[in-house]
Design brief:
Layout lengths: L2 H5 L14 E5 L12 H17 L6 H14 L6 E3 L1 H11 L2 E4 L2 E6 L2 E7 L4 H5 L6 E5 L2 E2 L5 H8 L6 E7 L7 E6 L1 E4 L3 E7 L2 E6 L6 H15 L5 E5 L6 E2 H11 L5 E6 L7 E4 L2 H4 L20 E5 L6 H11 L4 E4 L7 E8 L5 E11 L15 E2 L40 H12 L12 H11 L42
Parallel strand pairs: 1-14, 1-19, 12-13, 13-17, 17-18, 18-21
Antiparallel strand pairs: 2-20, 3-10, 4-5, 5-6, 6-7, 6-8, 8-9, 11-12, 15-16, 15-20, 19-20
Helix pairs in contact: 7-8, 8-10
Keywords: Hydrolase, Protease, Serine protease
Family: Belongs to the peptidase S41A family.
Organism: Herbaspirillum aquaticum
């Protein structure tokens, strides 16, 4: 696959590169080693350290050398384990709370430039006039070409009230647009909602953060105040990269029977072998109150469709997998990313202002399905557009990442991005550039329209593409085959029994 496609679709919410980690913050700063240390290898490492100090062409700072050694050691494990320096650790904690200092834009990468997916309403970028589709070509005096998305994002973030000048290439503008923007603290609402038509609502979770369950509860209460006889709801998890585990449990718990199993985890440590239930203690930020208690009982039975795509990862896959296992909702869209591992963030002594983000477990749906490197297979496959799925099927998946964990229950279930020759890829990219940027939840949202058709019992235009589906025995399993026979999907029978 060409280098251009590998960058397209890497979306960062409000200047945070779209990590697919489901994060648990571990209160334990240090654990005693239970195994003997490999003394010979450690001596060799000390010898190399000494050799660099004595023979390298320039003097190297001890702290920098050791920090880089730690970083390389952790990064060698898998794509999601990482050493977090002081700045990265602070940014991670802020991101889970739904706030950060930056410009306020969702971004991706296209042709080596930062592409604006959408400015966040009332953010510095929004007020400065940045538009969806803008290509950022220069950050102050630094050309964007040659930078990774993460490097560009770091340059756009900074301290409050500091300024940055963006050079922008805009369609239909002959000359570059130059804007100077002042960074500010941005607070992101992770939940969006609206009544799309009488009796039907759209609820979107863009990222699972600490306030997500509270935000969702308020949005659902407002929907029921407007539509007390709600006939159906579309839960939109497309391009949701994941986030904190309690947020995922709370979102699933809103729609599942009380005390249902939502997800389980398994790893080396006894503490990593856990089962999480639809109970207040597993999702409520305040142990004395339940944000879901304000919701009407009808929320447990209202017909549902959950929209996912190849950008739905980690925590969003937990929610989709749980609702699918209980047959509580029809899962619609395209196969998800396949991020089925748990990252624990462990603060390091002595100051505890640095940390290690370490993969400590795999997670499983209530029926014991491992999503790692496979993802969630929709009950009904529906493309993003009437004429196909655009670039979604070509985006990198978990199985494409170097050193990814395998699916421990079915090693034949791994799903990678579709292979395509360079020429075909170039044609597809050129065709996609002509499309108007898709706004999820708008009247032009084809998948949302099909979800509403499903809720109403109307015909659904399903995808012609066949999902990569295998069951636990490794045999081909295509549950949507019969639904494609007449290009129509039957209404889903709602079963809320445990």
């Amino acid at each position: 696959m060409g280098s251009k496609l590998k960058n397209i679709g890497l979306i960062g919410l409000g200047m945070v590169a779209g990590a697919t980690a489901m994060i648990q913050f571990d209160a334990i700063a240090q654990k005693n080693a239970t195994a003997s240390l490999p003394l010979e290898e450690l001596r060799q490492m000390a010898d190399v350290f000494g050799l660099i100090k004595s023979d390298y062409v320039e003097q190297v700072d001890d702290k920098k050398l050791l920090t880089e050694a730690i970083s390389g050691m952790v990064a060698s494990l898998d794509p999601h384990s990482a050493y977090l320096d002081k700045k990265a650790y602070k940014e991670l904690r802020e991101g889970t709370m739904g706030k950060f200092v930056g410009l306020g834009i969702e971004v991706g990468m296209e042709d080596g430039y930062v592409k604006v997916i959408s400015p966040i309403e009332d953010s510095p970028a929004f007020r400065a006039g940045i538009k969806a589709g803008d290509l950022i070509t220069r950050l102050d005096s630094t050309p964007v070409k040659g930078l990774t998305l993460d490097e560009a994002v770091k340059k756009m973030r900074g301290e409050p009230n500091t300024k940055i000048t963006l050079t922008i290439a805009r369609k239909d503008e002959d000359k570059p647009v130059i804007l100077t923007i002042t960074r500010q603290e941005i607070r992101v609402q992770s939940v969006k909602s609206k009544v799309v038509e009488p009796g039907y609502a759209w609820l979107r979770v863009t990222q699972f953060q600490e306030p997500t369950v509270d935000d969702m509860s308020k949005k659902l209460a407002a929907i029921y105040a407007q539509e007390p006889n709600l006939k159906g709801i579309v839960l939109d998890l497309r391009n949701d990269p994941g986030g904190v585990l309690p947020g995922a449990i709370g979102v699933a718990a809103a729609f599942l029977p009380k005390d249902s199993v939502v997800v389980s985890t398994n790893g080396q440590l006894p503490s990593s072998k856990q089962t999480f239930y639809a109970k207040r203690e597993y999702y409520a930020a305040n142990p004395l109150s339940d944000p879901l208690s304000r919701l009407p009982d009808a929320i447990k039975k209202v017909p549902m469709v959950v929209l996912i795509n190849s950008g739905s990862a980690s925590a969003s896959e937990i929610v989709a997998g749980a609702l699918q296992d209980y047959k509580r909702a029809t899962i619609m869209g395209t196969q998800s990313f396949g991020k089925g591992s748990v990252q624990s963030v462990i603060a390091l002594p002595p100051e505890k202002n640095t940390a290690v983000k370490l993969t400590t477990a795999r997670y499983y749906t209530p029926k014991g399905r491992s999503i790692q490197a496979r993802g969630i297979v929709p009950d009904i496959m529906v493309d993003e557009y009437p004429d196909g799925d655009g670039l979604n099927g070509l985006r990198l998946r978990e199985a494409d990442l170097s050193k990814h964990l395998t699916n421990d229950t079915d090693k034949s279930a791994e799903v990678k991005a579709k292979a395509m020759d360079e020429q075909s890829e170039e044609r597809l990219i050129a065709a996609e550039k002509k499309r108007k940027p898709l706004e999820f939840g708008s009247k032009d949202d084809f998948q949302l329209t099909q979800a509403l058709n499903q809720l109403k019992g109307l015909p659904v235009k399903v995808s012609n593409a066949k999902p990569e589906v295998r069951n636990e025995e490794g045999k081909n399993d295509t549950p949507v085959k019969d639904e494609r026979k007449d290009n129509k999907a039957p209404a889903e029978k709602i079963d809320t029994t445990k």
